[in-house]
Amino acid sequence: MSDIAPAGMPGAHRRPRTGAPATTVRRRLPRREFFRRALLCLLILALLATVGAGYVYHRLTATLTSYPSAHFNTGHNAVWLEHAWAATPHTGAEYDALAAQLKREQITYVFAHVGPLDSDGTISDEIEPHPSELVNALHARLPDLKVLAWIGQLEAASGGPADEVVNLADSTTRGHIAATSARFVAGDGFDGVHYDIEPITNNNSHFLDLLIETRAALPRGAILSVSAQKWSPNAHVADLLYQAGHAGQWTSYYMAAVAAHVDQMAVMTYDSGMPTAAAYQIFVQQETKHILAAISTAQHPPQLLIGVPTYSGDSLYFHASAENMTSALVGVTAGLNSASDTQPFVGVAIYRLAVTSDADWQVYNRVWLGQG
């Protein structure tokens, strides 16, 4: 029988069967059309990325209020003071000049370096032969000034040689550190101690032990202050940053745990690695906002000071063009304007006196003190 149907019958115009399936021929897009569609896709992706980045930027920089920096200045700021002031004698005129500057810049807390700890947790008398002279001179000129003994050293977590670090896991070493702190307060007249032991890793229970033991050793009413590590959104990020060389990073949980044992926390919001001033401002804003929220959960929240860098340099973790007096104060102000409660905050802490230039002080006076 023929495969071709008679005219007028169904299938009369079908193609003869050949035994092979019919194939569909796809036409290729002209090259110009292909590139036009590819460009359109790229533009859409770029638009989505821009909108997404804009949203993230808005969320990171949004504030609840818009007060100027001077609105948050309580007149209770701090400064780290170099070792030379406690290690070498000074004239009355030099103490006069120092006291006048501290008063002019509304500094209430001075962290006076009294020497690095030996690995056993002690400080030799030869390292700081004139601590009481410094304290007495400043108290005579500024009775309300609080002079704290700045005690620091690398912790074992830094990976340094055993004879160049303190191991807080060693109870004997912790006991020596607490006793050393008590000696500076009871014997030399300091108003308290300021620990700068680094790095303190997240959830380090031995550091909490040191704070408890120090509190027990200090005279009643003495101030217990610490240099606090940067804030981290969670423990995994804290561990990754520590492994990458970013010192210690503390979660909100550990910030609150430390806050429960101290009177004051000065956060080291520098050496962030931020490449630009704008990025550093956002970094400081977020640090200030989240640390305020974290320590406010303590039953008796400690005073909060936010560190401001004024030193120079350019390295992997620090760029003076990004981290400086101006950008830090902008970031602190944005962070305070972002917080629902700023009560624990008392001021900024300048690191450090000898490297703070006249230009830095001019910025500080104009922006933070609201002068001129």
Question: Any chance you could write out the topology, listing elements then pairs?
Answer:
Blueprint: H1 31-61, E1 77-81, H2 84-87, H3 92-104, E2 107-116, H4 131-141, E3 146-154, H5 171-188, E4 192-198, H6 205-217, E5 223-228, E6 230-231, H7 235-243, E7 249-250, H8 252-259, E8 264-267, H9 277-295, E9 303-309, H10 325-338, E10 345-351, H11 358-368
Parallel strand pairs: 1-2, 1-10, 2-3, 3-4, 4-5, 5-8, 6-7, 8-9, 9-10
What does this structure look like?
With 372 residues, the chain is an alpha/beta fold. It has a single domain, classed as TIM Barrel, CATH 3.20.20. Helix content is 41%, strand content 16%. The chain is built from eleven helices and ten strands. Helix 9 crosses helix 10 (325-338).
End-to-end CA span: 108 Å
SSE run: HEHHEHEHEHEEHEHEHEHEH
Number of domains: 1
Low-confidence spans: pLDDT under 50, at least 5 residues?
A: 1-16
Portion of residues in helices?
40-55%
Q: Please give the CATH architecture.
A: Alpha-Beta Barrel
Could you say which structural class the secondary elements and strand pairing correspond to? alpha/beta
Q: Write down the overall geometry.
A: globular
Whole-number mean pLDDT: 91
Q: From the alpha carbons, calculate the radius of gyration and give it in angstroms.
A: 31 Å
Q: What is the CATH C-level name?
A: Alpha Beta
Binned strand content: 15-25%
CATH superfamily caption? Glycosidases
Which strand order do you get reading across the main beta sheet? 1-2-3-4-5-8-9-10
> How can the largest sheet be summarized?
8 strands, parallel, barrel
Q: What fold name stands as the CATH topology?
A: TIM Barrel
Instruction: Give me the number of helical elements.
Output: 11
Total beta strands: 10
Oligomeric state of the chains in view: single chain
